[in-house]
Design goal:
Blueprint: H1 4-32, H2 38-43, H3 52-64, H4 69-101, H5 107-119, H6 122-135, H7 143-146, H8 153-165, H9 169-177, H10 182-193, H11 195-210, H12 214-219, H13 228-238, H14 255-285
């Protein structure tokens, strides 16, 4: 019995190390693959560093693909994600606040509808969204991706939990007695106190919008309007080197180019996670204790 704890600690560390390597090795390969040519990637050690010039060559091949459509994908992703973040601040956070502190008519119904929309798989909502957007004549436009982002139910729920458990109502009443309007109370009192949960909501919204694949895939047919996830799928599908079922002339898009565009897609998520780390911990536990 006296030796069980040390062996248990060793076993735990081995399991954690194995899990860490399982997650780190593919990421390391992704970072190193653009530094080699396709032949070097196959023949050399998979985790060896090649040369910086190979990165420039791979990016040149990507930039030449379909007259530089990769730049449009990057710019579109930034626009779609930025619009989703703005809409979340304008709509989701105030909606969660109103459901938490105001006696809104149909409050319970609205809250239940929000929770149900979180449970329903996004793929099940794509067809109704497509029919609605198509009725408005907005398919194959940026609005077909931006407008559905106006409602972020998970953000509404997180804001509701925070404002209903961690925001002192006495503080809001004191602000009203001082002559503050409802808008002033929200922007000057509630919102500054809710920075952790706002950061948490924006992080989840950023990740969901940046990685959004199925909605743009259904709504858009013009390649120039694709975001990065849909564009990468189109890139891989049209390259004979990455899709053996295709024949004909080979595009200069191979594994190094695919890895490089993958790094471009993943890097903003990693930067956002590092920046939002302090908000993640505080935001997750902010509603666990009253006051």
């Amino acid at each position: 019995m006296t030796h069980s704890k040390p062996w248990g600690g060793v076993l735990r560390n081995v399991v954690l190390l194995g899990f860490g390597l399982y997650c780190a090795v593919p990421l390391l390969w992704l970072l190193l693959a653009p530094t080699k040519s396709d032949g070097e990637l196959v023949g050399d050690s998979p985790l060896s560093f090649g040369r910086f010039g190979a990165i420039a060559d791979a990016w040149s091949n990507l930039a030449d693909y379909n007259n530089g459509v990769v730049y449009s994908w990057i710019w579109n992703t930034i626009i779609y994600t930025g619009a989703a973040l703005i809409l979340t601040i304008v709509a989701a956070i105030p909606a969660g606040y109103a459901l938490a502190v105001k006696d809104v008519p149909g409050r319970r119904t609205l809250l239940m509808a929000t929770l149900i929309s979180m449970v329903v798989p996004p793929t099940a909502l794509v067809l109704p969204l497509f029919l609605e957007v198509n009725f408005l004549g907005l398919t194959d436009t940026a609005w077909a991706v931006i407008l559905p982002s106006a409602f972020f139910p998970f953000g509404v729920y997180l804001a509701f939990v925070y404002f209903s458990t961690s925001l002192p109502l006495e503080l809001l009443e004191a602000a009203k007695l001082d002559g503050c309007s409802e808008l002033r109370v929200f922007t000057s009192v509630a919102l500054p106190l809710a920075r952790p949960i706002v950061g948490l909501v924006l992080f989840f919204c950023f990740v969901a919008s940046w990685n959004n694949y199925f909605l743009p895939y259904v709504m858009l047919s013009k390649e120039s309007l694709y975001n990065l996830p849909v564009g990468i799928g189109s890139l891989v599908a049209s390259s004979p080197a990455l899709n053996p079922s295709l024949g004909g002339a080979s595009l200069p898009i191979r594994r190094p180019e695919a890895a490089l565009i993958g790094v471009v897609a993943v890097l903003p998520i990693a930067i956002a996670f590092i920046w939002a780390q302090r908000y993640l911990v505080r935001g997750i536990f902010s509603g666990s204790l009253k006051g």
